[in-house]
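re the bet — no i am not wrong, look at it urself. input seq straight from the record:
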Amino acid sequence: MPAIQSTSATHEWTVTVQDSTSSPLREVLGSSGNLRALIGTPVSLAQSLVLQPLLFGVPLGAPGVHSLGLPAPDGDPLVVVTLESFEAMQGTRLDGYRVGRWPTRGLAARSPRYAPPPGFISVTPENEYTQVSKRFRLRDFLTHDQQDVWPKVLVLRVPLLDKLELIGDALERRGLPGLLHIMSGFRTPQYNAQGVGPKGGRARESRHMYGDAADVIVDANEDGVMDDLDGDGKVTIRDARVLLAVAEGVELEHPDLVGGLSAYRANSAHGPFVHVDTRGVRARW
């Protein structure tokens, strides 16, 4: 169970499913209605006039996971995740956890989309199971190295969560499983650098380092590979393209969540999958 810090105030709200499309609860739940966490710096959260009534009494200045004191329409708890400043790190590490440095040249010097993140979530064994959306928890997006080192650094942006939830719902409307599995979510710069180049196939300025990208599969049977979405009895790139087409439809309906999409073939290390991100501009490869 997640470690949720108590807040100094308890909100008294009468919330119905119909209310979920109105402000300010709509701001919390996102376009999908499936978000369960507000994530931001103390400044960014405090500056939102829409959210101020909900955040009264929440200790925004204390980094970590705090109860919002308000449930989602389905009863799930809602939380506020306040980011920790990178000043808390010792150079390129958080305690013993290796992080590295974000790029400062190239795209990082030309585009604010590639500026270093404003802060990070310190993930511990106590909070890793915190539910951040209907389908996902903090731990789903962690970098895959240093398994036994805690705390871990995580960068996770809410638009990515919203887009993935919309994709899951769209799959279910098509009669397909909506259980998405994150193959690769956030990557620390030091971890991403290990795969840069022709052999690794990772981009030097990968969106995975910025918390708004994920490589995903539909895995309802939980066998670790893409499900047979096209019903031909095999798992191939065509199944990834089914998932890609659903993601394309979500972007058309929600242009504010536009970003990168690409279907990848299977290789000796993994089955087919789809890359999804919310970089703010349309990208295909």
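see?? The first helix runs from residue 25 to 29. told u. also Residues 22 and 29 are 10 Å apart (CA to CA). so pay up
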